[in-house]
Amino acid sequence: MISLHQVSKTYETPAGKFAALKSINLNIEAGQFVGIVGKSGSGKSTLLNMVAGIDRPSSGSVAVAGTEIHGLSENKLALWRGRNVGFVFQFFQLLPTLTAAENVMLPMDFAKVLPFRERRKRAVDLLERVAVGAQADKLPATLSGGEQQRVAIARALANQPSLVLADEPTGNLDSVTARAILDLFRDMADQGTTVVIATHEADIARVIDRRIEISDGTLVNQ
Fold it and tell me: Which pLDDT tens digit goes with each residue over 113-124?
């Protein structure tokens, strides 16, 4: 599903060049639930952004399901991402003026995979799947942090992606809600979705198939 070959990423900073990733070689099989662990600044988020096509490597190649994604133009890359990747952000990133259901419908409106008349029903079905169906017509500000994260996960699943990436998805949640979110990702992987999360969560060993540790931009343990 995912293949990174000699991927490096260097950023220009006021203090000089900063190597966020250094010659990463990594393969992840379809249907795996993978946890990427490491300290803040270790390169976890940069690695996820490479796989999602949100950022481009300074060198090396990234292939997802056989597509060399960084060879695509920006427009084609955005369309590919919308149809194939669900991304769950640490701080939810829900649009405050849209209801929960409307937030989930946004990726459908962008990728146009589903006919317009079917999008509302799918959004509500997804919200019910993540146990917040009753919140479908509420604005994000009226929801708890755990409910907002569940809406964000439902949005990530909007276009039935084969790959779901999550950046610190439990970082702002209490321990009970965090466990429930991890269990939800486990269920998704059991149903065939490839799930990759970047996390500090100490409790992930019970749910993941594989643990990858990153330190200072280098994989130190797979």
Answer: 888 999 999 999
